[in-house]
Fold each of these.
Amino acid sequence: MNTIHINWDGPFTLKDVTSLNKPHDYGVYQVYGPNPTHGRVELLYIGLAHKVTFSVRIPKHTDWISYTRDSSQASIYIGRLSGIETPENMIWERQIVLAERLLIHAHYPTYNRQKDSVTCAPEFPNLHIFNWGRHRDLLPEVSGARFGKMPDIKFYGSHPSVKESGQNTVFSNQPS
């Protein structure tokens, strides 16, 4: 099982994120704001910052955030991957990509255009995400196993070792 721990912080404004340029300022982020249809503030977008820091990546959304119903209600939450030790960059970047894909797949944000093309990655069945801290509307725990193909399982019924007696012997209150 590949477990990814994400420690969330926020809310930040677009101006606030310009200071997020330290060596640990990579990961995934969420943008909240008024829904373009009904105006209720909700999760609009999940993105990633894996080749550049949050301070470089997030401001690239300034155009569409400013065109929401009320950009003053926009808020950003950043998620830094956490663990016992920092993995090699290639592994860290792959975890960021997988975390973003699974979170988009699980939460289906309004402005993620790629959500329709996000398919279950081969790694999904073994991927497990724990969202810690201020994860806002994200589920605290997301399992990629839930978004794969349903396993070949059958409904519970009488166990084959129980002889057919016409009664449900498994839940019987009768003494044996």
Amino acid sequence: MPNPWVGVVPYRLAPGRVQGWVHGAAAVPEPYLAALRRAGLEAVLLPPGGVEPDARLLASIQGLVLIGGGDVEPHRYGAPRHEKVYGEDPLRDELEIALVRGARARHLPLFAICRGAQVANVALGGTLHQHLPDLPGAGLHGDPVTGGGVSHEVRVAEGSRLFAATGRTTLACWSRHHQGLDRLGEGLVAVGWSPDGLVEAVESEDGWLLAVQWHPEETADRDPDQQALFDAFAARVRARAGG
């Protein structure tokens, strides 16, 4: 059976972001694609501004992946804009929020990473901490503006999909984010926490949705626990596709 197709929404790059390119571009960092390939999946890019999340589109893919990127516009979860918010992309927000809701309605497996976890939470009615350094006792979670990341442990809830995928109650995770999940969206439950108490992973009470705040793709080529997240997603995709 051919590898199932999963939709991936790429970054939108401004004109000149790629040296020598006059026009803008849509791109997905290679580590995401490599981790999906190792899991036996093929990525189909869904560029913001170029597709509509209608029934025909959602029927053409067997799963959905939301990847990292800039911040979600704060007005989408009813908050004023913090001065540290950066990299907003209204077209990408609009597409991804609609895709989350469409995927949930069609019971499509959904794997959301970093910004993707934040988008999924907002799409389901949740809110975000706009700047983690403002929180008392917040630990280090990296700096997405400079690209600096940090490694930290994540405590995993036994009995969760995250635990079933990895068999671990503690994971070593690589993070690069300045925002985090605050109030959880409808139907989401927390299943992973960093040492400072920040929710680092959520999953859905029904269907198959797993959202993690760290970047498993960055270490999945050498850490079986992180690749296991992509493998668990792929297993669910194949089961839904009948393969």
Amino acid sequence: MKPKELSLFYHNYKFFPYEKRFALREIKSLLQPNSIVELNNVVSVSGFKNKEAIKKLVYFSHAEIEKLTIRTHQYHFENGPEHKTKTKRQNTRYSVHGLHEYKGKFNPQIVKALFNIYGINENHKVLDPFCGSGTTLVEAAHEKISAVGTDINPMAVFIANAKIQALSVSSEQLTKCRKQLVQEYMKRIKKIRLG
């Protein structure tokens, strides 16, 4: 029986060399293939073990196998629900990561890739002793991994807690709050114009 063949397509933006190395290590860890061949922006994989793990790959937008296209979770995070590639730059502000421009934070893709490379999953606990604005904690929450973070900077702790709490707010609650804010804003604008 011929081993399964898979083509993986990188996201449509430039990568740092370490990100390409992470991408290949993710493939080895998650898919455990017989072979990996990298040509330009496509990686050919044969004899892989776990088709569901394809969706967890961070540095690839999609995979093609037997005329089937499989989008990665990261593609959906970075491009939103309308599934249109919006930019040619890596999106590091998806989910709640864009709530604050904390100096020194690192790309959430790195965290997710490291989780994949080292096999961290919902059965593990993660400690981030220098959590900053909570990038690791947010990515852990997305993957249903139990995580704890500490930081000496009280502002960092505040931001990290705000991000984690924001993840528990439903889209319905956000929509309701947005409508209320717009209504209140329109009332005040009307008063200013009339008075």
